[in-house]
Amino acid sequence: MRRIFILALILFIKVAFVSAQYFEGGIILGITGSQMDGDRLGGYNKPGVAAGMFVQRAASDKWKYRAELKYVMKGAAKITTKDDLETYRKTLHYAELPVMAIMKIKNKGFIEMGLAFGYCGYATLNYGAGPEDATSTVKPLELSALGGVGYQMNEKVSFNLRLNYSLTPVSHVSGNQTIWGVYGQFNNVLTLAVNYAIK
Q: For residues 32 and 129, which has the higher predicted lDDT (pLDDT)?
């Protein structure tokens, strides 16, 4: 899996810079809300950011394909209230390479679907006394499915709302039974992003 990720990264860079005349590129900036299914917590309580770049090419008037290379913050957190002083925040830092197909729909809208390869380079866990290194509790590689909807505001700017869900467990720590029918922990991330095309 690690070799596949590295090869995919090299291919992305080659496509972005060597074949620029055939592809449209741009930058991505967004915010995330995350949870880890199977960790006995609920809700998209962990805020984060997503940022990177993309290349895409039209296959027809209705379809185009796209690849991205970006940093994504994932994880989980427990909301602290006045009556509950317990604090829990797990932050996972990923380099991610999504590959997807995008279909245009009416009124400048579009839907997107695809897969993403992720590499978790660093993770922290905070119980209220400051973040501690928790990288060893997280599996370094992740395969996830993604789907979303978006709006093409003009030729350069578009917005999209995307769900990214792990297809493989992402933690060495066991968890509750999940929608896949296995006991483990899976990233469940919502991302709202703006995309700016550089032509």
A: 32
**Residue 199 and residue 196: Cα distance in Å, rounded?**
10
Q: The CATH number of the domain where 15 resides is what?
A: 2.40.160.20
Specify the number of domains making up the chain. 1
DSSP string, 69-126: EEEEEEEEEE--BTTB---EEEEEEEEEEEEEEEEE-STTEEEEEEEEEEEEEEEEEE
pTM (two decimals): 0.84
Name the residue range of residue 112's domain: 2-198
Q: Which of 21-30, 87-96, 106-115, 159-168 has the lowest mean pLDDT?
A: 21-30
Give the distance from CA 110 to its chain's centroid.
Answer: 18
